[in-house]
Design brief:
By secondary structure, the chain is α/β, with parallel strands linked by helices. Helices cover 24% and strands 35% of the residues. It is built from 4 helices and 9 strands. Strands 4-3-2-5-6-7 form a 6-stranded mixed beta sheet, with helices on both faces. The protein has a 3-stranded antiparallel beta sheet with strand order 1-9-8. The structure holds inosinic acid (IMP). Inosinic acid (IMP) binds next to strand 5, helix 3 and strand 8.
Length: 187
């Protein structure tokens, strides 16, 4: 069987983060999570859809006891920009009161989505509430956010892969990359 990540997808212009770099960073951050939580049970809350790939890898990079839940949100706005108005499409199955919650987000762009989510989750009375964000775009951030575990800062360009999509495609690429201009032109 051939490795689907072995060849660059024809729509990808540049690889911003290779699969190897992502996995190495996850191993480091996983160890930090293990140290920080020191045996306390963590409830990882993945923000769908983008975080599903990250959650699967992060889950296997930690050894602390961990449970998983997911939320799905949709932000009103154009295809590549959020408006800050967030709607919960799927809420958590679990009650987070008294639990150690770690929100797992693929990318923080303006920060508005996460800001909304954190306010919403804080009101439910978790014992602690921390954020894991694999990527951020520091030039774009509009609200101050307490990101405890941070993977990489990326330039202010639209990126796909490793859970991130453009029009629901490219989420399964094992790396993070930019799209060729022609992809947008054809859309
Ligand atoms: P924010 O509310 O502006 O921080 O936007 C966060 C959400 O926008 C992320 O969870 C992604 O779903 C989406 N997003 C932001 N930037 C990108 C990108 O470069 N590629 C793909 N999705 C992105």
């Amino acid at each position: 069987m051939t490795d689907p990540g072995a060849e660059l997808h024809p729509d990808i212009e540049d690889v911003v983060l290779s699969s190897e770099r992502i996995q190495a960073r996850l191993a480091e951050l996983g160890q930090r999570i293990d140290r920080d939580y020191g045996g306390r049970e963590v409830l990882m809350v993945g923000v769908l859809k983008g975080a599903f790939v990250l959650m699967a890898d992060l889950a296997r990079a930690v050894t602390v006891p961990v449970e998983f839940d997911f939320m799905a949100v949709s932000s009103y706005g154009s295809a590549t920009q959020t408006s800050g108005v967030v709607r919960i499409i799927k809420d958590l199955d679990l009650d987070i009161a008294g639990r150690h919650v770690l929100v797992v987000e693929d990318i923080v762009d303006s920060g508005l989505t996460l800001n909304y989510l954190l306010r919403n989750l804080r009101a439910r009375g978790p014992a602690s509430l921390e954020v894991f964000a694999l990527l951020s775009k520091p030039d774009q951030i509009r609200v101050e956010l307490p990101i405890r575990y941070h993977g990489f800062a990326v330039p202010n360009v639209f990126v796909v892969g490793y859970g991130l999509d453009y029009a629901e495609r490219y989420r399964n690429l094992p790396y993070v990359g930019t799209l060729r201009e022609s992809v947008y032109a054809d859309a």
